[in-house]
Amino acid sequence: MNGVKDCVPTLLGYLSIGFAAGIIEKTAGLSIAEIALLSTLVYAGSAQFIFAGMITASSTAAGIVATIFFVNLRHLLMSAALSPYFRKLSPVKNMLIGSLLTDETFGVASNQAASENKIHPSWMHGLNVTAYLNWILANVAGAVFGQWITDPEGFGLDFALPAMFIGLLALQMVSRKKYAVDITVGISAAIVGVGCGLLFSSSIAIIAATLSAATIGSVIEKWK
Asked: Per the UniProt record, which residue ranges are transmembrane (predicted)?
């Protein structure tokens, strides 16, 4: 129940971006059943937007799979960051937690780890399952009711997700109370992300920014 409660602040972001994803998927020609299945099995916002776009462009199945694979490589980094908290669990139980891990639940879990220095498996399940069900519901709602909303950005739905992450980041920084390190890491991530984004794809830029900024932050903390 605590995991469910801690997921509540992220639900609005899920609803908005999931609703927008449902609209785009419906526009791409997918049926409501296919959208529900896509949300259930893929469960990744950026991947589903890409999927809809590539379906519209008549891309091959192999091309879609390869693209989504590289876009979602960041999940390896997030899972690795949380894995120390679940070392005592069996591989099957770890798989159940990892398979439902998203950017949003990772942000909430990181905040929990920073404030409590531990993450209970049942709390993580409550967080993950709540977000998962909400995402599926949002996608299906977008597919059903999206015909009356042709421009999601006009309602600010495109900003709901970044706003949610800004809130999670602020909470984590306050709980850590290591402002100099966190600000340095943030600036480093922005510089590397923008620089790599000009040369490579946004997915590679995100991974490069994450790795470099995390390394810089770790070095600073060890040095201090």
From this structure: 12-37, 49-73, 129-149, 155-175, 187-220
Distance CA 138, CA 10 (A): 13
Task: Go through the chain and tell me how many residues it has.
Answer: 224
Domain definitions of the chain by residue range: 2-176, 178-224
83-to-14, 35, 222 alpha-carbon distances in Å: 24, 31, 21
Which pLDDT score is estimated for 204? 83
The kind and range of the H/E element at 208 are helix 202-223
Per-residue confidence (pLDDT) for residue 148, from 0 to 100? 73
Q: Report the range of poorest mean pLDDT among 74-78, 79-83, 115-119, 147-151.
A: 147-151
Higher pLDDT: 164 or 99? It is: 99
pLDDT over 90 (residue 176): no
The pTM of the full predicted model, rounded to 2 decimals, is 0.71
**What sections of 86-201 are H helices per DSSP?**
91-99, 103-116, 121-145, 157-176, 179-199
> Closest Cα partner for 30 from 3, 63, 64?
64
Helix (H, G, I), strand (E, B) or coil at 135: helix
8 with 168: CB under 8 angstroms? no
Tokens matching residue 18: 């999931």
Q: How far apart (Å, rounded) are the C-alpha atoms in residues 59 and 88?
A: 43
Q: Are 76 and 98 in contact (CB under 8 A)?
A: no
Nearest by Cα to 102 from 67, 143, 72, 65: 72
Nearest of 50, 43, 45 to residue 64 by alpha carbon: 50
Name the residue among 105, 1, 112, 88 with its Cα closest to residue 44: 105
